[in-house]
C-alpha cells in the first residue's frame, strides 16, 4: 500500500500501477488527488524544467478564458475531452456561473478523474462525467450523457485542453468530432510542442514514458491542422498565456510559455 491507496477518492479496480497525467497534473496544480508515484514523476519533471507547474497553471487559466469567450459567443453546451481531476475553475463552474442552464459533459479515461468528477456533480443535473477513451469518438458521441445533455444540432464548445499530445494519431480523432458538430461550434485546444525552449528537453517525453500517458509534441503546422474546418479567432494560434490575456502584464515570452493554444469556430 502506498500513502493514499484505499482513500475514498480512489475507485475500486482503478489501475494505480503506473503514474498518470491526470494525477501528475493535479499535483502540479497543488491538488490532493495523487499518489507517491505520481509525485515522483512530477518532481522529476520539475527537476528537468522548474517552470513546469507555471506552464500547468497558465494552461488552466487559458481553459477558463476560452470557456468565458465561448459563453460570450452564446455557446451554452460543452464537451470537455481529457477533462482531468476537477480543480479550481472547472468548465461547469465557469459556464453555470454565467448561465445555470449550461450543459457540460466531461470525458476522461482516468478512473480517479472520473470518480471525483461524478462525486462533485452528483447534484448537478446539467453536467455529467463519462469514463471513456476520447479516441473512441463514436462511443463518446453516442454515449448516454452526450445524448441526454448535448444537442449536436446546435453549437457545442469542444475542449481539448492538453489532450492532443497524449494521442499518437490526432487528425482522425479531431476530424471525427469536427464532423459531428454543428456550424458555429467552437474548438479550444492546447498542445505541447518542441518549438519553444521551455518544454523541448527530450527528457520530458522520456520521463512521461514511465506513465500511462506517453506524449507526442507537435509542430505549429501539425497543431494548426487540428483546426481544419474551423476559423481561428484572433490572435490565432499562440501560446496559452498570450491568448486574450486578462491583463497586459500576463503576457509571457512564448519560449517560456510553451504550449500552443487557440480557439476556432466551425464554418
Ligand atoms: C494534463 S490533464 C488536463 C486536464 C484538463 N483538460 C486541463 O487542461 O486542465 C490531461 C488529461 O487528459 C486525459 N487523457 C489523456 N489521453 C486521453 C484519452 N485518450 N482519452 C481520454 N482522456 C485522456 C488524462 O487522463 C488527463 O486527465
Automatic annotation (TrEMBL):
Entries under Pfam families matching the protein: Methyltransf_19
Single GO BP term: methylation
GO molecular function: methyltransferase activity
Keywords of the record: Methyltransferase, Transferase
Protein name: S-adenosyl methyltransferase
Amino acid at each position: 500500500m502506498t500513502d493514499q491507496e484505499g482513500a475514498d477518492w480512489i475507485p475500486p479496480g482503478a489501475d494505480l500501477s503506473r503514474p498518470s497525467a491526470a494525477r501528475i497534473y493535479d499535483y502540479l496544480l497543488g491538488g490532493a488527488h495523487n499518489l507517491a508515484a505520481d509525485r515522483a514523476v512530477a518532481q522529476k519533471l520539475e527537476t528537468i524544467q522548474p517552470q513546469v507547474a507555471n506552464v500547468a497553471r497558465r494552461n488552466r487559466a487559458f481553459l477558463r478564458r476560452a470557456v468565458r469567450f465561448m459563453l460570450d459567443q452564446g455557446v451554452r453546451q460543452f464537451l470537455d475531452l481529457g477533462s482531468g481531476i476537477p480543480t479550481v475553475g472547472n468548465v461547469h463552474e465557469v459556464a453555470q456561473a454565467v448561465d445555470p442552464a449550461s450543459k457540460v459533459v466531461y470525458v476522461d479515461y482516468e478512473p480517479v478523474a472520473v470518480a471525483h468528477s461524478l462525486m462533485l456533480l452528483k447534484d448537478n443535473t446539467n453536467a455529467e462525467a463519462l469514463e471513456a477513451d476520447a479516441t473512441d469518438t463514436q462511443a463518446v458521441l453516442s454515449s448516454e450523457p452526450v445524448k441526454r445533455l448535448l444537442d449536436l444540432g446546435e453549437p457545442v464548445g469542444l475542449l481539448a485542453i492538453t489532450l492532443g499530445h497524449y494521442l499518437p494519431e490526432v487528425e482522425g480523432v479531431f476530424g471525427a468530432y469536427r464532423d459531428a458538430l454543428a456550424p458555429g461550434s467552437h474548438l479550444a485546444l492546447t498542445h505541447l510542442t518542441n518549438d519553444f525552449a521551455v518544454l523541448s528537453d527530450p527528457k520530458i517525453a522520456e520521463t512521461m514514458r514511465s506513465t500511462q500517458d506517453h506524449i507526442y509534441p507537435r509542430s505549429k503546422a501539425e497543431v494548426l491542422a487540428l483546426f481544419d474546418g474551423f476559423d481561428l479567432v484572433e490572435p490565432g494560434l499562440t501560446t496559452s498565456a498570450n491568448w486574450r490575456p486578462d491583463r497586459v502584464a500576463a503576457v509571457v515570452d512564448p519560449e517560456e510559455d510553451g504550449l500552443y493554444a487557440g480557439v476556432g469556430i466551425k464554418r
